[in-house]
Design brief:
single chain; 768 residues; alpha+beta; Aldehyde Oxidoreductase, domain 4; 7-stranded mixed beta sheet; globular; binds dioxothiomolybdenum(VI) ion
């Protein structure tokens, strides 16, 4: 079986300088040459292909299912429905005390029930010799339903919203003072309603699973953000011990939250492999992703701001309505940024939910803040105009020194500096404030700003670090590399910690046989790994030093652990005086092939202890500190006054993300967030038929994500100041980039045209 083994390209650099350097991705060559195998690319002799048939009603019972035509398609091996599917255990109920349960995409036990819970739920799986035969046959499955009343229209249900229950892992409602009274009394105020549509996941690589049973042992090649969660869920569903399941996911073509949970395709591929008695691949079609993988909740939001004439905020009210599915999904922290961004005297935040008979929502890049910042940061811009203040100046007048809600300290907060840097790079002072006052030929030119904000988070990671006799270092951890640069930054961190060049570090990841890693989510992965990798490297150095000290000939024999420095491929006295010794020399004299250090244990209890310790530390930290990444977006648009066409023509983002581990991959993450945010601002919108609950545009032809021609040069800057409370001072970069983007676009569109668009996406019909 393939193990991900990646050796970095040789680099001419001195050791100790890897962290921060713009190093090329260690997996870049494998990906660009096609050597990298993704989940749907693993060959097996005797491989069969599966395809899904989807329900066409939102809620009901299957009364009859006719698979004869499907079964008659040449090459079809079997058609699995609820009438003949083997029993599976139901998915675990979502609970913060069972992290694997957080990966439950829906509570439906697929093909083990005649009940239908959303329009698109899989009702049959066809297994065939080829994918084409399976897809064609799946289209021939005829299902009759007894329809039950379904509630599917988000807009119509808004009035039935109920307060979102709070939980320890998410921020909920909050109150400081009497914001309603302060709003009513404020000399200047805005009270605005915003809406954002449902968004669906469109990772470059659609979800795919290749599953092979060998007796009661299972191998799964999976496109996932969470190897351990996938393994845990499959073990529960199929009633086999986790140790019998190997999940491999070395290459993932983007996740964005859509591959964080376990969805129908994964479970049904494994089920199909069991039924067919052959390895099975299930590669979702793009439409299949829309029908079976959750997307971002739609929202309506109210933001009301009250201010004194000098711009100081007296009231900040932010409330939201979002939706979950009756069979799953979770509330998002839509008002999370509103707890931290402005020093308002009175604050009222409240999140509400409606429950619909639709595929549950799921995480999508900055769930909550991505849409919450659209409303908040648009409203702040509107208030700035009402006050006659520059929108940056208004923000700076309300920049808090401690957390506005409760006076907690910020672990790190350089939003002011981010605005200064961004304004200078963008040329903000050249902007004339009056809407419609800037032109370029026939184009109206607009410039807008908005703040970015995303909290930081950590999960448990078990790590081993092995030093070999040749001086090479092997880092092993079952983390995931979805294209963010994770493998590269792990090599960089290990290189500096052990004083070896990056080229000497090999990283193994993406395989559940490795020490348990964190899920890739919450922008937490790099910090999570660093928190274990750094102490593992320290342990390793102490073991190596102990070996050296045993020898009377070692120049290190009198050196204490506290007085040793790792550099130039070995250990040296930290005072810089006296000779040191290279790792190969130490290991050779000790007669050792390798030395290994480990942090964390993969026994059942060990894994639980690691998780509990890490989550406990995060929650404890959160009682003391507010930790987050933030930033300032500067957007320039050109709007065609006749057609309403909006082109984003320039972008500058300046971020405070703590220490940057890799200048190139971090900038890519931030830039990618901005690209996704531009899609959210201008084009992305899932259209759900309010009568049938059916997604009407489940394809890239009708759901528009930005293409290259839509994206201007994006300048990304960061302050690179370490956060003193985070491992290596790093704060995650995966999600903060998208936050604030849609508001910056909307604010620029207003500046260009004088029109406020408060309902995303900003399509041209809204500007005419
Ligand atoms: Mo994410 S939405 O934490 O992949």
């Amino acid at each position: 079986m393939t193990q991900t083994e990646v050796r970095t390209p040789p680099l001419r650099e001195t050791t100790g300088s890897a962290v921060g350097a713009p190093i090329d991705r260690v997996d870049g060559t494998a990906k660009t040459t096609g050597a990298a195998r993704f989940a749907a690319e693993h060959p097996y002799p005797d491989l069969a292909h599966a395809a899904l048939a989807h329900s066409s009603v939102a809620r009901g019972r299957i009364t009859a299912i006719d698979t004869a035509a499907a079964a008659a398609v040449p090459g079809v091996l079997t058609v699995i429905t609820h009438l003949n599917a083997p029993a599976m255990k139901p998915p675990p109920k979502i609970s913060p005390f069972n992290l694997v349960s957080l990966a439950t995409g829906t509570s439906v036990n697929y093909l083990n029930t005649d009940e239908v819970h959303w329009n698109g739920q899989p009702v049959a799986v066809v297994v065939a010799e080829t994918r084409d035969a399976a897809l064609h046959a799946a289209s021939l499955v005829e299902v009759a339903y007894q329809r039950l009343e379904a509630v599917v229209d988000f807009a119509a249900e808004e009035g039935n919203a109920e307060p979102q229950k709070s939980n320890a892992l998410q921020s909920g409602g909050a109150r400081k003072g009497d914001a309603r009274a302060a709003l009513a009394a404020a000399p200047v105020s805005v009270d605005l309603r915003f809406s954002t549509p449902q968004h669906n996941h469109n990772a470059l690589e659609p979800h795919a699973t290749t599953a092979a049973w060998d007796g009661d042992r299972l191998t799964v090649h999976e496109a996932t953000q969470g190897i351990a969660w996938t393994r845990g869920q499959l073990a529960l569903r199929f009633g086999v011990p986790e140790r019998n399941i190997r999940v491999l996911s070395p290459y993932v073509g983007g996740g964005f939250g859509g591959k964080g949970m376990v969805w129908a395709g994964t479970v049904l591929a494994v089920l199909a492999a069991r039924v067919a008695g052959r390895p099975v691949r299930l590669e979702l079609t793009r439409e299949g992703v829309y029908r079976t993988v959750g997307g971002r909740t739609p929202s309506t939001q109210r933001v009301a701001l009250g201010a004194r004439a000098d711009g100081r905020l007296t009231a900040l009210v932010h409330t939201s309505v979002a939706r979950v599915g009756r069979v799953g999904g979770g509330g998002e922290q839509i008002t999370s940024q509103s707890r931290h961004l402005y020093d308002a005297e009175n604050i009222l935040l409240q999140q509400n939910l409606v429950t619909l008979d639709l595929l549950p929502n799921t995480m999508m890049r900055a769930p909550g803040e991505a849409i919450g910042t659209f409303a908040l940061e648009s409203a702040v811009d509107e208030l700035a105009y009402k006050l006659g203040l520059d929108p940056i100046e208004l923000r700076m007048r309300n920049e808090p020194t401690v957390n506005p809600l409760d006076g907690k300290r910020f672990a790190h907060r350089m939003l002011r500096e981010a605005y200064e840097l961004g304004a200078e790079r963008f040329g903000w002072p050249e902007r004339t404030p009056a809407p419609g006052s800037m032109r370029d030929g026939r184009w109206l030119v607009g410039m807008g700003v908005a703040s970015a904000y995303h909290p930081s988070w950590q999960l448990a990671a078990n790590v081993t670090v092995r030093l070999s006799a040749d001086g090479g270092v092997l880092v092993r951890c079952a983390f995931q590399e979805m294209g963010m640069g994770s493998a590269t930054v792990v090599a960089q961190i290990a290189a500096d910690a052990l004083g070896v060049p990056v080229a000497a570090v090999r990283v193994e990841y993406g395989d559940s046989l490795l020490p348990g890693g964190p899920a890739a989510g919450g922008s937490a992965q790099t910090a999570s790994i660093a928190a274990s990798l750094l102490p593992a490297a320290e342990k390793l150095k102490r073991s190596v030093l102990a070996l050296a000290r045993r020898s009377p000939e070692s120049p290190l024999r009198g050196t204490r652990a506290s007085g040793v420095l790792a550099r130039d491929g070995g250990l040296y006295p930290a005072d810089g005086r006296g000779a040191g010794e290279s790792y190969p020399a130490i290991l050779a004299r000790a007669g050792r092939d390798s030395v290994e250090a480990r942090v964390g244990s993969d026994t059942r209890v060990g894994a639980m202890v690691s998780q509990a310790r890490t989550v406990g530390k995060v929650l404890n930290d959160r009682r003391r500190w507010v930790k987050a990444a933030c930033g300032a977006h500067f957007c320039e648009v050109r709007v065609d006054p006749d057609t309403g066409e909006v082109r984003v023509t320039r972008w500058v983002g300046a971020f405070d993300v703590g220490r940057v581990i890799n200048a190139k991959t971090a900038a890519s993450q931030l830039r990618g967030g901005i690209v996704m945010g531009i899609g959210m601002a201008l084009s992305e919108e899932t259209l759900v038929d309010p009568r049938t609950g059916r997604v009407m545009n489940p394809s890239l032809a009708e759901y528009h994500v930005p293409v290259h021609a839509d994206i201007p040069p994006i300048e990304v800057h960061y302050l690179d100041e370490p956060d003193p409370t985070m491992p290596l001072g790093l704060i995650g970069v995966g999600e903060v980039g998208i936050t604030g983007v849609a508001a910056a676009v909307a604010n620029a569109v207003h500046h260009a045209t004088g029109r406020r668009v408060r309902d995303l996406p900003i399509t041209l019909d809204k500007l005419l």
